[in-house]
């Protein structure tokens, strides 16, 4: 009988995110390794990463901080930190270009944004009037960001679901979602009175304005697993081994012993081995700490006939290697002997036994 794969068969084997710590983002006395001409800077890190292997959904927290890096006289009121929807919320609407997704946006600022970064509600409107309700908590007043020794901070709980997850999961074992967060700003100096719009495109720019972000998950499909052999101990012959049923991971395994396609015996886990339980758990199985996954069961009477037997153990849909024993074949160093029952006769009222035992 064919069994449909269920969610319990899939487990997450690894998940990771980057960056997990903040970079240094201001020059001068804050960080000489970063371009000292930066007017503003930001850092981001990812925490609380989770992955649901049933739905294909990542959950994570985006932690952002930003600050003014330059000295008095340089103003950066038109400031934004942008990321795609997997990183930043919808902040507002462009007049021509659709929605904007920003983690930070100083709306209603002066100097004003230049297209395409200004938010405009068609046919008219201001930045502050065009933001979404969800973005209210991060609307910033018309002033410069704080200094780097006291940066401003904001965190967002975000999600991302892998498209066409059921099919993707069945044919792949890893997925990485990448995104880039960048800062955009316009600055004006008292000295020259000029307004300049700067939007460096990558982290190699003089403004060190972008950070690459990634979340990754790896998974695998669990299958029923087991091993079984024939061993001899103190003159007795046993089926010994271990196993786990993917469809009943918390229960003792039940292994059928088949010969010629006919079920001859069933052996069930009856030996608790905490080390083996821990091993299965490390592989991703939902084990029960008190469940016996190991097996030691004496061969059934059907096999005590002096004949050679080749049997196939099966657990769920898993077929294990054949085991051959009996006759002149050894079973873990011992021979499976036949049991011959005597005929019982009466002679003169007495019971006389003949035959072999």
The low-confidence parts are 1-7, 28-33, 189-208, 332-348
* Helix run count: 2
Mean pLDDT: 75
- Percent helix, as a range, is under 10%
The topology string of helices and strands comes to EEEEEEEHEEEEEEEHEEEEEEEE
| Largest sheet: number of strands, sense, barrel closure | 7 strands, antiparallel
Distance between the termini: 43 Å
Would you give an account of this structure?
It is a single chain. With 357 residues, the chain is mainly β. Helix content is 4%, strand content 45%. A hairpin with a 3-residue loop joins strand 5 (90-94) and strand 6.
Describe, in short, the structure shown.
The chain has helices at residues 165-171, 274-282; strands at 10-18, 40-52, 57-68, 74-82, 90-94, 98-105, 152-161, 174-189, 195-198, 210-221, 225-233, 236-244, 254-259, 262-268, 294-298, 309-315, 318-319, 323-325, 330-331, 334-335, 343-347, 350-354.
